[in-house]
Amino acid sequence: MSTDPRVPPTVGLVVAVTAVSGGAILVRLSDAPSTVAAFYRVLFTTLPLVPIALWRYRTHLAGITRRDLGFATLSGVALALHFAAWFESLAWTSVAASVTLVQAQPVFVALGAWVLLRERVTARMAAGIAIAVAGMAAMSLGDLLGGVLVGPRPIYGNGLALFGAVMAAGYVLAGRSLRQRVALVPYVVVVYGVCTLSLLGIVLVEGHGLTGYPPSEWAIFVGLAVGPGLLGHTVVNWALAHLESSVVSVSLLGEPVGATVLAFVFLAEAPTTFTLVGGAVVLAGITLTATESDP
């Protein structure tokens, strides 16, 4: 562990969680196609890191093997599909449901590691997965049966958010061994570069334009990069050098809470009872899974 950071790590985590919590609100405020917003979010996050990678990490970049580049490509494509699905989900379901379900990534990481890597699933992890799945069912089906819905097609939006969680797990699993061999900055630049190109391909296939947006949209694109991207995930990576990974993982579960509060304040979007109760159950299951699976 690093010692004597200038900024207390707990303060950094508060900043990071606050920054990522605002991401869903910015996406909802944007009138641009969701894949365009996702493309510029990743592009503007990556661009400031490229000169650093080329200047300080030239040897690291040159040392990336063809095999590692293959894993980086898989990781980047999975990350692109995560962003595309999650951004789109916010158009169809509530912020509270979308952000909570997409945060279920640790559950799918544990399942994926068990199926693909033959890693052991403990009784605690199995219980966490079961609890999280029960909460997801309550969130998705409870509102439908209760007749109180938030969003034009909440079941579809919830499905997209879950797919986004699965793709985020794929991003983690594909990049886990790679991250142990490649330094953080070149790793992020390569994976985010693949992600950017993948999102660009999706945008072009969908036929959306990349220009012609008003200044307010460009401000949102930059805000998504600076907030959730640089102040959010970059600070999280910094905090991991000073705090236990389980503490950081559980702290990030504050994002659904923060996003729900911000959605109520700025969008006047009140979550339903089933979303609140089911979301709490999901977060409890994720906590069990994440704290057990962390080294």
TrEMBL record:
Coiled coil: none annotated. It comes from the Archaea. This is EamA domain-containing protein. The keyword Transmembrane applies. The chain crosses the membrane at residues 7-26, 38-57, 69-87, 93-117, 129-149, 155-173, 185-206, 218-240, 247-268, 274-291. Residues 16-140, 157-290 form the EamA domain. The keyword Transmembrane applies. GO terms for cellular component: membrane. Pfam families: EamA (PF00892). InterPro entries: EamA_dom (IPR000620), EmrE-like (IPR037185). Keywords: Membrane, Transmembrane, Transmembrane helix.
